[in-house]
Amino acid sequence: xxxxxxxxxxxxxxxxxxxxxxxxxxxxxxxxxxxxxxxxxxxxxxxxxxxxxxxxxxxxxxxxxxxxxxxxxxxxxxxxxxxxxxxxxxxxxxxxxxxxxxxxxxxxxxxxxxxxxxxxxxxxxxxxxxxxxxxxxxxxxxxxxxxxxxxxxxxxxxxxxxxxxxxxxxxxxxxxxxxxxxxxxxxxxxxxxxxxxxxxxxxxxxxxxxxxxxxxxxxxxxxxxxxxxxxxxxxxxxxxxxxxxxxxxxxxxxxxxxxxxxxxxxxxxxxxxxxxxxxxxxxxxxxxxxxxxxxxxxxxxxxxxxxxxxxxxxxxxxxxxxxxxxxxxxxxxxxxxxxxxxxxxxxxxxxxxxxxxxxxxxxxxxxxxxxxxxxxxxxxxxxxxxxxxxxxxxxxxxxxxxxxxxxxxxxxxxxxxxxxxxxxxxxxxxxxxxxxxxxxxxxxxxxxxxxxxxxxxxxxxxxxxxxxxxxxxxxxxxxxxxxxxxxxxxxxxxxxxxxxxxxxxxxxxxxxxxxxxxxxxxxxxxxxxxxxxxxxxxxxxxxxxxxxxxxxxxxxxxxxxxxxxxxxxxxxxxxxxxxxxxxxxxxxxxxxxxxxxxxxxxxxxxxxxxxxxxxxxxxxxxxxxxxxxxxxxxxxx
Length: 637
Prior knowledge:
The chain is an alpha/beta fold.
């Protein structure tokens, strides 16, 4: 059972408090759990990454944190109602003349099963989410919001959604007016309701459903069923209970509390990823680095730090303000915004770097470059940003630290290879306390422990891959390189899971099974369907020691991968963060279920456990083999 997220418990506390004050609703259409398939997607910033298992675990924790004690089945209470979106195979907004309202995502059953649908299944089956949002696009020729196989048969019947299915805003209108899926509007209303849609974000169903009922295209009972699904969630939220209820005590005093603001700072610190640190240039010393040149279009960012779909922050601490807490600062933007259309301000930036003990360049993107309905064309830094970095690095008297603010990956190969750029930090869009968190990491008050949740590709990758190609697996015969670390094996700027610390860690396997018997009635099978074995008996326990061999306390993220026997494709099966004091050692217990984590989806989307040797990788340097064989007996570990 995954624990809930403390951050989202705070979000739902504040959401309830604002609802009680008449300033907010209780249905939060979040989280976005689409797989980060393509690095150009404008909504990269909304998603937790490219790996299905990672996104699934994020989804479960996120939903449980938002919904509070009402995350169970039945009629249990909800603090707020979460919504997992956008179902499914959705991560193209507007690219090369193709937009999300007209895009037909051609997806194999294999990719749906082992990539695109994994987080949504986890949301419903394990997170017990209150709603799922269907997407604008078509999947294999049928609009997501009008596909009974995707909605009624999968979300409702197979995964057992206890809640409602909602359209993305105006999706029903889109499938009629722009996709021309039906001839008459009442046909579109009937098709979506019969497919399993319960709620339309938009006016289309309100206008056309009555005519669909009058003409017999949808029954009143089907409409009532959809209505019941939405009203049941309202009841679980306590919307008919009056002023009393388990969350009635939450009010203004519960918004922007010191504890909540401290949590925002902690989350920002934990999300920072150290990608380069030559000669331990970081952390900086307040004694040796008394003057810091703070340069770049994001150097005094505030609104940029909260990304998109954000609430009103309690207050901002910009990078410039954060660094000023540790040292005297000399500030230059260097560029007119992140678009950086010219080099007119480079000279004064070089002068600042020449006279400072160290230089921090805060560069990257913002919502003018990547956003919903704004996919990127290039992975390079916008405009003249690269030239600014190189010129400042050449002029700087002291070490140069590059801080990148973005949602999606950026090709900074030039900075990675430039010895004058001593360190690189990726901070994402770090939120209201982002500047304080950046400064704390720069000066060693916090030890970075973040890992990249996505592959950072070189620019030439996007020249080979159309955003419209939904295939995950590589196809060398047609020059298609595949997507994400699981299937793409070409050169990268930084790999999935990259991230250093100011200390050093070692890992070792203490105990793990070597042979596993898979119960089955057919001993001849080389691959056993998960539906044809006893999955409850296939829980495997790994015990791993993590030792901090450095001189600073730090947090290490264990990444456990598997390579099933039919292919050399590595996939994440478990991860866990562990805090280890300098010189100390921690024992970490990892549970892996063979049916859930060690299976491969075949071309028909059927999950199978392959017999033979499965390679387990702990990080990059520790390997262990587990041999699976079919047996009429129960598992023996």
